[in-house]
Amino acid sequence: MIKLLVFTLVGIGAQIVDGTLGMAFGVTATTLLVLSGTGAAHASAAVHFAEVATTLASGASHWRFGNIDWKVVLRLGVPGGVGAFLGATVLSRISTEAAAPITAGILLAIGVFLVVRFSSRPPVEFAASEKTAHSAKFLTPLGLFGGFIDASGGGGWGPVTTSTLLTTGRSAPRTVIGSVSASEFIVSASASVGFLLGLGSDFFDNLLIIAGLALGGVIAAPIAAWLVSRITPGVLGTGVGGLLVLTNSRTLFKHFDIEGAPRTIGYVLIVVVAVTLTVFAWRKSRTAPATDAAETTGADAAEPAVAGSAGTEAAGEGSADATQVPVR
Questions:
Q1: Cα separation of 254 and 234, whole Å?
Q2: Which stretches of sequence are listed as region Disordered (predicted)?
């Protein structure tokens, strides 16, 4: 019972992160499970199966709060499911260690770009009726690659797809996060089928972990969806970028054998900079409404004068017309 409670708390924490930032359920859950004493292999397998339930709940919650573009979900999730199934059944045994530092470097660069962009120049929210800005030609290969990386590399659907869609700046961050979270259900289900074929009876060793993660994720999904519908785009984008930098720097530190004080200093600097810029983006978002309100008030104050001028002009035109009536 205590272990189930621990795994449930891990699921709650991981889903709060994933549901608000559109990524990192696998990274967060796996890290917390390993810290709690679970073996790395069992933690990775359990996370993939648990994500079937958590992503379903997350997608439903994001739909409830209007954070989903269903065209993006289908165009991204279906090819993502194909890539995930192939990665789980065919390529999961192939080592991806050689490609890990390259992928981490690319994602870290994207994270830096997101932090700088969203903290300095947050995008405006798009209208809910806006048509999908991303074509199938763009989303299909992105989904295939993201699904393949997620299944064969032990995670990465959110970092690959969410970060890429955010960098285009064509959709509101909350719509990107909601759509990616919903499409991840297809990816997780497809990967789970592949892992079932590969794991066989070993799957049943992870039932308690899966149950705890799924329960915690389902509990936290509505909370995360509510948060993402309330947090401003600047804060969301900066948070996503900071998370990318932190998680991928960990991979690079491990690959290049950077340990001890240099590694600790690196983590501290990343956290301090990310938190500082996130706070800056939050403060900037709080001052923006006041500025908008002042501009609106000024515009409203000018309208009576314009209306008055228009009325005077109309009256003048009326008088002129009156004097031009022909006399018989």
A1: 31
A2: 291-328
* 11-50 pLDDT per residue, tens: 787 777 776 666 667 766 776 676 666 665 566 677 878 8
Tokens at 283, concatenated: 């403060």
Q: Residue 185: what residue type?
A: F
Query: Tokens 């890290």 identify what position?
Result: 31
pLDDT at 318 over 50: no
What angle, rounded to 10 degrees, do the helices at 207-228 and 2-21 form? 40
Identify the weakest region by mean pLDDT among 73-77, 107-111, 225-229. 225-229
Asked whether the beta carbons of 54 and 217 are under 8 A apart, the reply is yes
The letter for the amino acid at 110 is: I
